[in-house]
Write a structure and sequence with these properties.
By secondary structure, the protein is of the alpha+beta class. The protein has four helices and six strands. The chain has a three-stranded antiparallel β-sheet with strand order 1-2-3, with no helix packed on it. The protein has a three-stranded antiparallel β-sheet with strand order 4-5-6, with no helix packed on it. The longest helix has 11 residues, at 2-12. The protein is extended.
Length: 138
């Protein structure tokens, strides 16, 4: 998938941004502080906060460092995969500004039901099954 994403980024003229994103190393140094803030919070989470207009009048929206010009992002879709010992689940979540995330769809899979030899398989086998037998890459 990384190769296809890189090819797409090149076609769209975003290759530099793609490489920067792939090289990003997250900073986990404040995780314990963040966890303590979550545990001790008394107010519900804020998903989006509108910031003050910039000097040119552009309004920005987002959370924390994730500020983008208002109206640029109409919908974000996040896909997550949760793997268990024998099964896995894929979930797609839609997020629009100023609204709670909404589950767009989810699928539960048992790889053995998808003709994957669960006793002996490699990445290529899993990718092939994902491409041909699931909604992930179809």
């Amino acid at each position: 998938m990384r190769g296809k994403a890189e090819g797409f980024a090149q076609q769209q003229g975003w290759h530099k941004e793609f490489l920067e994103e792939q090289a990003h190393v997250p900073d986990y140094s404040e995780n314990s502080q963040e966890w303590n803030e979550i545990v001790s919070a008394t107010d519900p989470s804020v998903y989006f906060q509108e910031s003050h207009p910039a000097e040119d009048g552009t309004k920005y929206t987002g959370t924390g460092d994730e500020q983008v010009p208002e109206g640029v992002v109409e919908l974000e879709q996040h896909v997550g995969i949760d793997q268990g010992v024998k099964n896995f689940t894929m979930v797609a979540v839609d997020k629009t500004p100023d609204a709670l995330p909404r589950v767009a769809g989810s699928e539960f899979y048992n790889p053995a039901d998808k003709e994957l030899n669960v006793r002996k398989f490699d990445e290529a086998d899993l990718v092939l099954v994902s491409q041909t037998k699931t909604v992930l890459m179809n």
